[in-house]
User: Which sequence fits this backbone?
């Protein structure tokens, strides 16, 4: 996980950065601030295996690394795997139900309506109707 802007910001703060990627030639991995590249399966196609790869890498580190998620797929993987990450990775996560409500558009619409949040009206379209 990690894009160039995050890698650069952490690196400029003298924080060592390792990135996870399913791309063999990831541009982020070539950053001068990147100290390691952790190859993973796709966070979209196989989030459980991607998280397992990061956990396996973390077990080789002196202390549990901090995990920064960058998008919905890696956030969901981290949230759903929070018990597996315990003791291996440090990560700040909202409650699991909140993550699920915020990432899924239909669930978010119902969540926002229940809380009377000022969001645009949502219409759900169904095929054949």
Assistant:
């Amino acid at each position: 996980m990690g894009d160039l802007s995050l890698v650069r910001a952490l690196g400029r703060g003298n924080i060592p950065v390792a990135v996870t990627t399913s791309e063999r030639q990831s541009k982020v991995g070539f950053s001068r601030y990147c100290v390691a590249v952790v190859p993973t399966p796709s966070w979209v196609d196989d989030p459980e295996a991607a998280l397992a790869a990061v956990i396996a890498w973390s077990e080789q580190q002196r202390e549990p690394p901090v995990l920064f998620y960058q998008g919905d797929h890696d956030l969901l993987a981290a949230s759903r795997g929070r018990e597996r990450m315990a003791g291996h990775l440090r990560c700040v996560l909202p409650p699991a139900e909140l993550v699920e409500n915020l990432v899924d558009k239909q669930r978010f619409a119902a969540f926002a309506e229940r809380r009377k949040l000022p969001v645009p009206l949502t219409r759900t379209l169904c095929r054949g109707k």
Summary: The CA atoms of residues 47 and 65 lie 19 Å apart. The chain has a mean pLDDT of 93. The longest strand covers residues 34-39.
